[in-house]
Amino acid sequence: MRTLNRPLEALERDVIRIILAAFPLGCRPLPVPELNTAPWPGLVRNAKRHGLLPLLYAAVKALGCDSVIPRDLYRELHRSHMEGYAANARLYAELDSLLTLLEAGGIPAVLLKGSALAVTLYTDIAHRFMGDIDILVPRHQAQAVISLLERRGFELTCEHGRDFSEQMMGEATMVRRGKNSLMIEPHWHIFNAPYYMRRIPEEYLWKHTRTIDLRGRAVRIFDPELQLLHLTTHMVLQHDVVYLRWSYDIALLLSRHGVDMDFAALMADARRFNLASAVQTALLHVEDVWGRVIPEASRDAVYSAQPSLAERTIMVIMAEPYARNAWYALTAGNMKEKYTYCFRLLFPDKRYMMQLYNGSTSALLFLHLHRLGTAGARFLGSAAAAAARSVGIMRR
Fold first, then answer.
1. Whole-number pLDDT of residue 326
2. Residue 92 and residue 146: Cα distance in Å, rounded?
3. Which residues of 44-75 are buried (b: 16+ CB within 10 A; e: fewer)?
4. What is the pTM of this model?
5. Rounded Cα gap, residues 62 and 60, in angstroms
6. What is the pLDDT of residue 342?
7. How many C-beta neighbours within 10 Å does residue 43 have?
8. Which listed residue, 51, 113, 214, 321, has the most CB atoms within 10 A of its CB?
9. What is the CATH topology of the domain spanning 88-221?
C-alpha cells in the first residue's frame, strides 16, 4: 500500500519492472532487475500487499524464470494463482446468477471496477485480484436489489444504519459469510460524497455505457472515457491508500483504448464535475509508476485544464479522512440531512458497533464515548492539516 505522495520503494519498482518485462504496455522500456539474484521474498511480499501476486506469477511464467525463484516462494505464487482463479470463478458464477435474477426482475445493471476490468483488460481473469463484485443499479430499484441479495443469504453491513445507507450514500455492502464468503456492493452512484452525488447526474452514468459479451450474456460496462474518469477519481479521492493494481488498471485501459478516447470531452466533463485535478493527478501518477502516458496529441487537452480554487480545496479535504467526513456532512443537502449525517457519523448503528468492537449491550455507552474521543482527536488533527494545506493553495 502507498499514498500518492510517497515515493515508490525499490522493491515496488522491481515488481513493476518484472510485470512490464512480461506484459509491455507500449510505453518507455524499463531495466529488468537481475532475476537470478533478485530479493524474491521482498518482491513476493510487496506484490501481495498490492494485489499483484497473481500477475507477478504470470510474469514469472511468461519470462521463463521459474527456476530462479526459491521453491517455497514459487509454490506460494502458484497457490496464489490457483486460489485467485478459483475465487474469481466463484465471483463470476455468483454474478451470473445475480444478473439472471436482475433481468427477470427488469432491473438493469452495469458492471463496475474489477468485475468489468478482469474480462475486458486482462488476458486471464486470474490475473486481476478481485475482493468483491461491484454493480451499478438504478437508485429507485436499489432496495429491490438489496432485498434480492438478502434472500440469497447476503447480509447488509452498514455502519450508519440501513435507512441512512439508502438515502444518503451511493452504495450498500452485502456480505454472505461462510467458508467461501462473498461480498457484493450494489451502487446507485460512483461516489459516496453528497457533493459529487448531486453534481454528477445519475443519468450521465447510464448514458456512458457500452455492451460486452460475458460468457454468452450481453452486459453493460462504462465506456472508456467514463471508465477512466471513474478509475482515476476512485483512486485519488475515495481511499487513503493506493494499491499498484489500481494504477495498473488505468495503465491497461490507456494501453487498450487511449488512442481512441475523446480526452477533450472527458476533461470537459471532469471540469464540470470539479474532478479535473483528480484525473490529472492520477494520470501523472500512472505515468510515473507504469510509464504509460496518454497520447501526445491529447496531453494538452488533459493537462491544460486549470482546476478552480474550490476544486483544489476539495482535493485537500478529500485527502484527510476525518476532515472529509465532516465535509460530507456539511454538503449533505438541507439542514435535516446535515444533522442526520452528523448524528450517524458520531453514533453509528448499534449492531455495527457491537460487531466492530465485539462488545455487549452494557458496554455500548463506553464504546460510543471511546469512539467519540478517538474520532474527535483525529478530526482535529485532520482538520488542521487540511486547513494548513488550503492556506498554502490560496497563497499560490
1. 78
2. 18
3. bebbbbbbbbbbbbbbbeebebeeebeeeebe
4. 0.87
5. 5
6. 76
7. 24
8. 113
9. Beta Polymerase; domain 2 (3.30.460)
